[in-house]
UniProtKB/TrEMBL annotation:
The name this protein goes by in its record: HEAT repeat-containing protein 6
Native source species: Knipowitschia caucasica
Annotated Polar residues bias: 380-405
Bias-annotated ranges (Low complexity): 317-332
Biased composition (Basic and acidic residues): 368-379
Length: 1181
């Protein structure tokens, strides 16, 4: 019976399933039967057209139908339609569909040899021509193959299933009407795929069918969870089942490969949906076992389930399997302890240049470069649970023989093919593990780290982990897959690894979890450094360096002993000039990770400052991958000749370099960006300049930006040189280079701004002098940045250029020439009318920054122009534009209040009332927009209500907009919006209450405003919102603002209730704000008492006389004594708050005197006695 190569189109045909080449039965022709010499594509087209016309002309029940079909099918099967060989083939997919549909009506089920040949034809045409079937063709062919499985003999089912796997490829969800027959309780695929199936070829093809059913292409609806789970269980059961006693290893590997492929497709469909933790542990256990399929020297009992930490390891020595004889498969050698034996290194074998192609190149997987590793540095924690490996454990046994002539040619070929299939199984297991890592929630996966990443101190026998594969597997593709899995596990693990710590010098008597994690990080560094040293495959080398970048980006080096980064930093320098572009780019990516992780890091600062013993650029030696790592020393190569390039860092302002040398990483990046490559060997290219490839230059620019961002103090003395690099990039024609040049300028500007921020406390003598900053920006703004701002063909470049303009230091901007300032403002105002929303967003944001510049905020014309521009942007249909416009409007209104508080009378009088009215109305409308717009819109409303003068509020045109604005704030406070929005709304009401011109005592909206704040202060789950609402309630400076006695007491009651419940929360994150909440509430209550009048005494006395008063008294005493500080949220809204205990007590004494002077009232004494009791308690302290 025939066994065929792939069971589907290219994704499955080329690398998805194995190929068993055995003789075909009489009368059948395998889809890939004989080696084929490609003919001219026109011959294949003509042959297909001839057969197509003949078959279309045939009708059922013809006397010669069988013979004619046999002949036509043979002709079609004899042609090679693979477009790799015949790229000019022009056969239309609809013609293939029509032919197959018509042929299915001509082949009766009782003529089984013809059925087999038709199924082979289905696979042949659909697979090689990559035909995407229409729905009708899919249904016709699915009906045919499913009926064939029901009516034809069992010997035909292998070919029928081959056709079925091709038909369902990427069409699983569309075949739902047939899935019950295939995957139901007694489904044919489940029957044939069971591990008890004697025919491994049937089992393999059935598993391939199930895998193709599970395969999902992007944008396609997923397979129903019911059938997906059925397939998942079948794949998992197959992988857990032992090899049948009479089965050949090669056929068994093909079955495993199909099951792994199917499991990978199941896991690639999205998030994990396959049951509890035991299911995940079962999957991980079998994948770990398959990771070492065919690895010599591994003879252990694998666990059926892995359990998350802190359960003990589950690998243990096998008690049932005796040591095997030294066949080519493996050796155990248990009498030789592997812990005292060094691993052998892979020798250099043959290697094709097209290593990454499909099956025809898979022999390259037997890369014969095994990596060296000293077993004394192997890590293990519990020796009794570690597998017993042979003395040459995991070293390929086919390389342990002294002579290749010990095997005959047939034996050598068979063993080579078996090794190839073992490699494919291991590769499939790792790809499946990669899919599992991506589909499972990170938090659930962390418990299994110790099963795949060593977490034990160095010194014991080696564990079997991903690092074992990375260091020992002979196949570069398998090693690359293992590195991809490790990278996926490290990606996003910063929060998990943040627990790691080993900075303490003394070791405790037990191994803590934090120390185990730290050990894992160190072992990862050690093993990946060894892998980097030994690897010669450029593709795998790229993966190693990328994996190191993920590790560096997520490891908490501030909590680890120094010394991990220094060896790595120096080791990867030799790869900067590596001949493979991808390797060079990945090296720069790693350097970028090194200068961004927890920057500034002291160890990295030292590395950047280290003087060079030789020329910086002369130390970069590209490695020759044709030499192993052992052979590189002492071998002359023209590529290793030191190259010295004139650095542009010495060309500007010599005073800046006095006693200062640029960090070597900065020099290296500048060289890669601006200097031509090493001299060309071809004489015809003499005199031409060839720069580094574009990906290298872009990544070097990225690293330079990261260096400026994280270590600006080391780069600031070379400000002008870096600026020249940016200018040179902006002068080039490539838009991506220009884009990264503007981003570098943005980082420079941001670094300067950070230096001048007061909260950073940087001494003036350590900052860049302001005159140099002005000179720098003058040169930048007179250079090619203008062209980038006007480059409408590249909106992303314009966007980045706008960001660069917004990063100018405000103090420097004020000292720029007037024409330069005018140019910046004019360009930004003009770009807000761009049709591209990204450009418009960046321009509006930049204006929102410029509006707070001291030199611009008092310019009424600029404020008016900016306001009109922002208001127009708030009406834009792009939500991103509206978000930035709302933020800029908030900044603009902040500027209005700053000008008001600076008593800039001329500014308030010159600003148009109609413009203010338009701003108020637009902000009110924006407060009903999305939350990201709303949060800044309400901030703007609060500022505007605070800024408006009484003469403006008295105008009838402002009456309704004023009411609408306040009611918008009230609605936002009471809404279910995100807490930041509600916080801003409470803040806005507090700002509004500060305006004495607002008619709080008489306005119809006043009651709603106070009620909303009272409701929030007692019921909101978020304590920061409660703090802000309490602060707003304490803002009004006059008693009349609170209205009548009833409203005044409602405010009092709400504050008192909130104070009593200030510790009632189920959220620990909120509990940390409870002290600040009590501080603000206490201040608010004392503020109300300081404003209370005689008609308020009755209600206050009733509240203070009972148990409520006693509870209030406890908190007020703590406030007066300053026993609880305001750490969060009680900032400037604390109107009239005294910050020292003495000032608070003094204010309370003045209030007692004021109350005694009030007209006689029977309840007044109760309130006075309460306050005097507070004073007495403070005096006792």
């Amino acid at each position: 019976m025939a066994a065929h190569c792939s069971t589907s189109r290219p994704a499955l045909g080329s690398s998805g399933s194995g190929c068993q080449e055995v003789a075909s039965p009489p009368g059948s022709l395998s889809a890939e039967a004989a080696p084929f010499s490609p003919r001219d594509s026109s011959d294949a087209d003509k042959q297909f057209s001839h057969c197509y016309a003949k078959i279309r002309g045939l009708r059922p029940h013809s006397e010669l139908l069988r013979d004619q079909l046999n002949l036509l099918f043979d002709k079609l099967l004899s042609e090679n339609y693979n477009k790799t060989f015949n790229p000019d083939i022009s056969i239309r997919p609809e013609d293939v569909c029509t032919l197959l549909k018509h042929a299915s009506s001509l082949v009766p089920f009782h003529q089984e040899h013809l059925v087999v040949k038709f199924c082979q034809l289905m696979h042949h045409l659909l697979n090689q021509l990559k035909v995407i079937m229409d729905e009708l063709t899919l249904n016709v062919l699915m009906n045919y193959v499913t009926w064939s499985l029901k009516k034809c003999s069992a010997w035909t089912h292998s070919d029928v299933l081959l056709a079925l796997s091709t038909v369902v490829y990427e069409n699983g969800p569309q075949c739902h009407q047939h899935l019950e027959h295939l995957l139901g309780e007694n489904g044919v695929l489940l029957e044939y795929s069971t591990p008890t199936q004697q025919d491994l070829e049937l089992q393999r093809v059935s598993l391939n069918c199930m895998a193709n059913i599970c395969l999902r292409i992007p944008g396609q609806a997923p397979l129903d969870d019911q059938y997906r789970l059925v397939c998942f269980r079948a794949f998992l059961k197959t992988l857990h089942s032992p090899k049948p006693a009479n089965a050949e290893e090669l056929f068994y590997c093909m079955v495993l490969r199909s099951a792994l492929k199917g499991l990978q497709y199941c896991l690639s469909g999205g998030r994990w949906k396959f049951g509890s933790g035991d299911d995940l542990g079962s999957v991980l256990a079998v994948l770990k076992q398959m990771m070492f399929q065919g690895s010599p020297g591994v003879s252990i009992e694998w666990p059926s389930v892995l359990y998350p930490a802190p359960l003990p390891p589950y690998e243990g020595p096998s008690s049932s399997k005796p040591p095997e004889t030294p066949k080519p498969k493996s050796t155990t050698g248990r009498n030789k302890p592997s812990a005292n034996k060094k691993w052998k290194s892979r020798g250099k074998g043959k290697k094709n240049a097209t290593e990454e192609t499909k099956d025809k190149d898979d022999d390259d997987d037997e890369d014969s470069t095994t990596k060296p590793e000293a077993s004394k540095e192997q890590c293990a924690d519990q020796t009794e649970n570690v597998p017993k490996l042979s003395s040459q454990s995991l070293y390929p046994s086919w390389k342990q023989t002294s002579s290749d002539s010990e095997l005959s040619d047939p034996e050598g070929g068979a063993q080579s093919k078996l090794r190839l299939y073992h490699v494919r199984v291991r590769q499939g297991a790792l790809l499946c593990l990669l899919a599992a890592v991506k589909s499972v929630e990170k938090r659930s996966l962390y418990g299994y780290w110790s099963s795949f990443i060593p977490d034990s101190p160095i010194g014991g026998p080696p564990q079997l982990t991903l690092l074992t594969t990375i260091l020992k597997d002979p196949s570069p593709k398998v090693r690359a897959c293992a590195l991809q899995v490790l990278s996926a596990m490290l990606d996003g693990s910063r929060q998990f690894l943040a627990v790691a710590e080993d900075v303490t010098s003394s070791r405790p008597s037990y191994t803590s979890f934090s120390f185990s994690l730290a050990t894992s990080v160190r072992e990862l560094h050690r093993s990946l450094s060894l892998a980097l040293l030994a690897e010669t495959s450029p593709q795998t080398l790229t993966q190693i360096i990328k994996c190191l970048a993920y590790l560096v980006s997520n490891a908490p080096y501030q909590r680890l002993k120094p010394g991990l980064l220094s060896p790595l930093w120096k080791q990867i320098r030799s790869y900067v000039r590596y001949r493979d572009v991808d390797v060079r780019v990945s090296v720069l990516t790693l350097y970028g990770a090194l200068v961004t992780t927890q920057a500034p890091l002291s160890e990295v600062q030292l590395l950047l400052r280290q003087p060079e013993s030789s020329s910086i650029l002369g130390s970069y030696m590209p490695q020759d991958t044709s030499l192993s790592w052992r052979q590189r020393e002492g071998v002359p190569s023209p590529c290793r000749t030191p190259v010295k390039l004139d650095s542009p860092l010495n060309s500007h302002t010599p005073k800046e370099d006095d006693g200062t040398t640029a960090p070597w990483l900065l020099q290296m990046c500048v060289s890669l960006i601006t200097q031509p490559r090493e001299s060309l060997s071809d004489s015809e290219d003499a005199g031409t300049y060839v720069f580094e490839p574009l990906p290298v230059r872009l990544q070097a620019l990225q690293v330079l930006s990261y260096l400026v961002r994280g270590y600006f103090s080391l780069c600031q003395s070379h400000l002008f040189e870096i600026g020249q690099v940016s200018a040179r990039c902006l002068s080039e024609t490539d838009a991506s280079i220009q884009l990264h040049g503007t981003k570098l300028l943005d980082e420079l500007g941001t670094g300067i701004i950070q230096q001048y921020r007061a909260e950073n406390n940087i001494p003036e003598n350590q900052r860049i002098p302001i005159d140099k900053v002005v000179t720098f920006w003058s040169e930048v703004l007179s250079g090619p940045l203008n062209a980038a701002l006007q480059n409408e063909q590249h909106p992303s470049l314009q966007t980045s250029a706008c960001d660069t303009l917004s990063s100018i230091l405000p103090q420097a901007f004020a000292l720029l020439p007037d024409k330069t300032q005018l140019m910046c403002v004019t360009v930004l105002l003009g770009l807000t009318y761009s049709e591209n929303y990204l450009v418009k967003t960046a321009a509006v944001r930049a204006l929102g920054i410029y509006i707070i510049f001291p030199c611009l905020r008092e310019d009424v014309m600029f404020v008016a122009d900016t306001a009109n521009t922002i208001l127009a942007a708030l009406e834009d249909r792009s939500p991103n534009v509206r978000v930035k416009a709302a933020w800029s409007l908030g900044n603009l209104t902040d500027t209005l209040t700053v000008n008001m508080e600076s008593e800039c009378v001329d500014f308030r009088e010159e600003l148009s009332d109609m413009l203010l009215l338009k701003m108020l109305q637009t902000a009110t409308r924006a407060s009903a927009d999305k939350d990201r717009v709303k949060s800044n819109a309400v901030r703007a409303l609060g500022n505007l209500l605070h800024f408006l003068r009484g003469s403006q509020l008295s105008r009838s045109v402002f009456k309704q907009p004023l009411e609408d604005a306040v009611r918008a704030l009230v609605k936002t406070v009471q809404s279910e919006a995100i807490m930041k929005v509600r916080w801003n709304a409470c803040y806005a009401l507090g700002k509004a209450f500060r305006n004495p011109a607002l008619p709080l005592e008489s306005a119809s909206w006043s009651h709603d405003a106070f009620s909303a704040l009272c409701n929030v202060v007692t019921s909101c789950k978020n304590f920061k919102v409660r703090i802000k609402s309490a602060a707003a309630l304490s803002v009004p400076a006059q008693r009349r603002c609170y209205g009548d006695a009833a409203r005044f007491f409602c405010v009092w009651q709400a504050l008192a209730t909130a104070l009593e419940n200030s510790e009632d929360t189920n959220d620990f994150l909120e509990y940390r704000y409870s002290a600040s909440l009590r501080h603000t509430l206490s201040q608010a209550l004392l503020h109300l008492l300081s404003l209370s009048q005689a008609h308020d005494m009755a209600a206050l006395a009733k509240s203070l006389a009972g148990a409520e008063g006693a509870a209030i008294r406890v908190h007020l005493v703590k406030y007066l004594r300053a026993e609880e500080g305001a750490t969060e949220g009680a900032e400037e809204e604390r109107h009239g708050d005294s910050f020292t205990p003495q000032e608070r007590v003094k204010a309370l004494e003045q209030n007692v005197v004021r109350l005694r002077a009030l007209p006689a009232e029977m309840n007044k004494e109760t309130v006075v006695d309460f306050l005097e009791d507070l004073l007495k308690s403070c005096d006792e302290s």
